[in-house]
Write a structure and sequence with these properties.
The chain is α/β, with parallel strands linked by helices and 368 residues long. It has 2 domains: 6-60, DNA polymerase, domain 1, CATH 1.10.150.530; 67-348, Aldolase class I (TIM Barrel), CATH 3.20.20.70. The chain contains 14 helices and 11 strands. It has helices at 11-20, 27-37, 51-60, 120-124, 132-148, 170-181, 201-210, 224-230, 233-236, 239-248, 271-281, 306-317, 339-348, 352-367; strands at 67-73, 79-84, 90-98, 101-105, 109-111, 126-129, 157-160, 193-197, 214-218, 257-263, 286-292. The protein has a 9-stranded mixed β-sheet, sandwiched between helices. Strands 5-6 form a two-stranded antiparallel sheet. Strand 3 (90-98) and strand 4 form a beta hairpin. The longest helix has 17 residues, at 132-148. The protein is elongated and about 70 Å long. It starts with 10 loop residues before the first helix and ends with a helix. The relative contact order is 0.11. The structure holds iron/sulfur cluster (SF4). Iron/sulfur cluster (SF4) binds at residues 112, 114-116, 119, 121-122, 164-165, 198, 218, 337.
């Protein structure tokens, strides 16, 4: 029988296990502290636990973190970490240290069923949900990476913008967020944990009631017909329905709700599109992140040119809507969501020689 992963145990489950093992319930909290505060996944090192109990912990639970398959370091100091799960699937997270924060972009699923047309993960379909432990493991791995690089900081900000639609894996994501926000464990501020969704309306409502996290919406168009074409979720939950739930959402940050808007040349980047966006945002406390489309294999969509982007941005800011242009960090290492994992999956489907030739071609192209 496979053993339950230690990071998948809730605090109450740990307490019950401790009592059933003949020790005090509070030790259950300390076990989670070892993992989350000290990055320690070896129960034999738990110095406040008896030797007999350490051995029992070691035997009863799985303490392995996902393996690190590849780390791609970008010229902008971010790094993409490709992880291999216990069942040999690939998922990824992106570590983005900057002067005053360390942001980690985490995945919540292997693949994604939402099928947004501009997204590489969407093309993979959904393989499976990640467990709460597999989500939390990404933070432990990132904190260890920081230490290895001589950076004594820890991850300060989490964004659920990696692979997957977090609200399609609701229970595991909510459970993981609770551990992130708990000051005894990862202790992250509620302003600094952001769940980004394509618009699963009933789940947005629930999320607001259960955990005080910040919300980001992948919007990309404020036109019902166009958005339904780009993001199939819009056929189920229209923009009108989405707006209704957002008006009720308990916002956690000064700037309110963040809207992600990928700027795609000739698709959603005209002034009439900006007008529709302003109309949609009316009555909401909002910030819009304008993100130039990150081209990837299998699509002919490209980023809006900078001049057009500035006009779009000015239209929003003239109407008091903050609209910073955000370039995806780590573009040189395929840091947009799903790019590396899907590349790796494709590689595994090819003969090693084909992969080696493709990698050499990429390397030569970078040298030019
Ligand atoms: S943009 Fe987000 S929700 Fe849409 S397919 Fe990609 S990962 Fe899924």
């Amino acid at each position: 029988m496979s053993r339950i992963h230690a990071l998948n145990m809730s605090e109450s489950a740990w307490k019950e296990w401790c009592v059933a093992s003949g020790t005090k319930a509070f030790l259950g909290t300390q076990i989670i502290e070892w993992m989350t505060r000290k990055n320690c996944m070896d129960p034999m090192q738990f110095s406040n636990v008896s030797q007999a109990l350490r051995s029992k912990l070691n035997e009863d639970f799985d303490w392995n973190l996902p393996g690190i398959d590849t780390v791609l370091e970008s010229g902008d100091a971010s790094e993409k970490i490709l992880l291999k799960t216990h069942d040999n699937l690939f998922t990824e997270c992106v570590l983005m240290p900057s002067e005053n924060r360390v942001t980690l972009c985490v995945s919540s699923q292997v693949g994604c069923r939402m099928a947004c047309t501009f997204c590489q993960t969407g093309k993979m379909g959904l393989t499976r949900d990640l467990s709460r432990g597999e989500i939390l493991a990404q933070i432990i791995i990132a904190n260890r990476r920081l230490l290895e690089k001589g950076d004594d900081r820890r991850v300060t900000n989490i964004v659920f913008m990696g692979m997957g639609e977090p609200l399609d894996n609701f229970d595991e994501v909510v459970a993981a967020c609770s551990v992130m926000l708990d000051e005894r464990f990862f202790g992250l501020s509620k302003h600094r944990v952001t769940v980004s969704t394509s618009g699963l309306v009933p789940a947005i409502e629930e999320l607001g009631k259960l955990v005080p996290v910040s919300l980001a919406i992948s919007l990309h168009s404020a036109d019902e017909v166009q958005r339904s074409g780009m993001m199939p979720i819009n056929r189920k939950h229209s923009l009108a329905e989405l707006k209704e739930v957002l008006l009720r959402y308990p916002v956690q940050t000064r700037h309110g709700i963040t809207f992600e808007y990928v700027m795609i040349n000739g698709v959603n980047d005209s002034i009439p599109h900006a007008k529709k966006l302003v109309k949609f945002l009316h009555g909401l406390k909002a910030k819009v992140n304008l993100i130039p489309m990150n081209p990837h294999p299998g699509t002919d969509m490209v980023a809006t040119d900078p001049e057009r982007m500035r006009e779009f941005q000015k239209y929003l800011t003239d109407r008091s809507i903050p609209a910073p242009v955000r370039y995806s960090r780590g573009q040189d290492v395929s840091a947009a969501c799903g790019q590396l994992a899907s590349k790796r999956r494709e590689e595994l489907n090819h003969a090693p020689r084909t992969v080696a030739l493709a990698r050499r071609k990429e390397w030569l192209a970078q040298k030019v």
